[in-house]
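Example (one chain per record):
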Amino acid sequence: MVLDPENKTQVDTLNRYREAASEFQSGNVPPTMTGYWLMKKHLVSADRTWTNVGVALAWLTKHYEANPPFQRTDGLQAYCGLDWKLEYAEDVLPRGVDVSWVYYMPSENLTSYSVVCCPNRFHPEIPCPFPPS
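Predicted structure:
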């Protein structure tokens, strides 16, 4: 598509896209793909960079237990259990597959935790923001 400078809608859309793209790395907008978290360098810290899968799993477990998912009142299970989540994450993380846990808490707030592999299997062009030592 060629931009028509006389078309105000096209110009406004393009300008808003450019503005959103420039804000992405430092803003609060979550990425559309887990690997894009690596571009948000302001969220990187040494205490959240691991080379050991067990440490990453402990981090996920700590946050899950501190903020558990809501329980259905009819006794049925709303989400798979922590054991299954950990088993899956332990299997795929060493193979370079990112893990995201997203669920509603009893407060009805949505929570999300992700462990993103770096270098990222699906986005190898994105450098590790804080390579492990």
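Caption: The helical segments are 8-24, 53-66, 82-92.
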